[in-house]
Amino acid sequence: MLDTLATSSDKLPVTIITGFLGSGKTTLLNYILQNFDNYKVAVLVNEFGDINIDSQFLIGVEEDMIELTNGCICCTINDNLTEAVYRVLERRDRIDYLIVETTGVADPLPIALTFLGKDLRDLTQLDAILTLVDAETFISEALNSEAANRQLMYGDMILLNKIDLVAEADLNTIETHARAIKQGAKILRCEYGRVPLSLILDVNFSESGSSEQVLSAPQSGASNHLANDGFMSVSFQSDRPLAMKKFQQFLDYRLPDNVFRAKGVLWFAESPKRHLFQLSGKRFTIDDSEWTKTPKNQLVLIGRKLDPLFLQQTLNNCLTRQQV
Ligand SMILES: Nc1nc2c(ncn2[C@@H]2O[C@H](COP(=O)(O)OP(=O)(O)OP(=O)(O)O)[C@@H](O)[C@H]2O)c(=O)[nH]1
């Protein structure tokens, strides 16, 4: 597709941000986009679920490849990562850094291999794999999810995030646990992904670590099953508003325990605002913003062994009867 091969200094640096569901990848990405001065960044966001919620949390629009207000571009990866990277490379004159956010249930190995494979290795330079870890939920994730373990294993830098939610003694236990999975892991503690960017971007970690580790990894494990790790997603959309009280009751009494993560843009009959809903483990938040498009509800729920019909019907029952 691109007919000229780049010299090594022309190679587009690539950082992969991985980490389990809700660990803070999009939060870190937003922080980077606001603070990575002097770099023109392209972002590829891969999502687990049919609706592109993350790109809306980043910028408030939902087209496939879009220009962000700070001049960065954002693209949702559909089926083919290589194709998406080529599309970024076609704008190489305007882009000098690429960040890829994986889904929370992704094995980062096949993603890293894409950049080290023959199509892209002369055009891109894998700079580092950053692994976000949710300090509050990590121990149970690591025990239950092979993907969580592999995200840790292949990370060049572990960002132990959400330290505001955990006591110091528990952080030490988590670090010990993480080092048992990845010997010699570099671990940075943080809140809301706020770390000095010079420690994580344009650092060329891969040269000394992950590229070799990734290339020598056994490839047989990179199956779809592993990629999803038993997780599934259920989407809910509606152009009728929710009744706030009914939705609150849904959260309090009807939300099944096996929903581990949910995120969405919500429209309540009682409010003129656009509400950004986040649920991670047992915690949820609802933040306000302004509608820039016709209001509607878009919600993705992620968990194991979900009952899509039950969830969709229960959410349908939270809608108001008439259009407002
Ligand atoms: N208390 C606390 N909350 C955080 C921190 N970092 C992120 N969050 C919240 O955790 C929730 C999930 O954060 P995201 O950045 O969306 O997580 P993610 O890894 O992109 O999620 P997925 O892509 O769905 O796997 C959001 O409500 C964030 O505001 C932190 O350091 N402390």
UniProtKB/TrEMBL annotation:
Q: What is this protein called?
A: Putative GTPase, G3E family
> Which molecular function GO terms apply here?
hydrolase activity; nucleotide binding
User: What residue stretches are annotated with the CobW C-terminal domain?
Assistant: 231-319
| Record keywords | Chaperone, Hydrolase, Nucleotide-binding
The record, for Pfam families, names: cobW (PF02492), CobW_C (PF07683)
The UniProt entry's sequence similarity note says: Belongs to the SIMIBI class G3E GTPase family. ZNG1 subfamily.
Q: What is the lineage of its organism?
A: Bacteria, Bacillati, Cyanobacteriota, Cyanophyceae, Coleofasciculales
Q: Does the keyword Nucleotide-binding apply?
A: yes
- The protein's superkingdom reads Bacteria
Organism, as annotated: Allocoleopsis franciscana PCC 7113
Reactions catalysed, as given in the entry: GTP + H2O = GDP + phosphate + H(+)
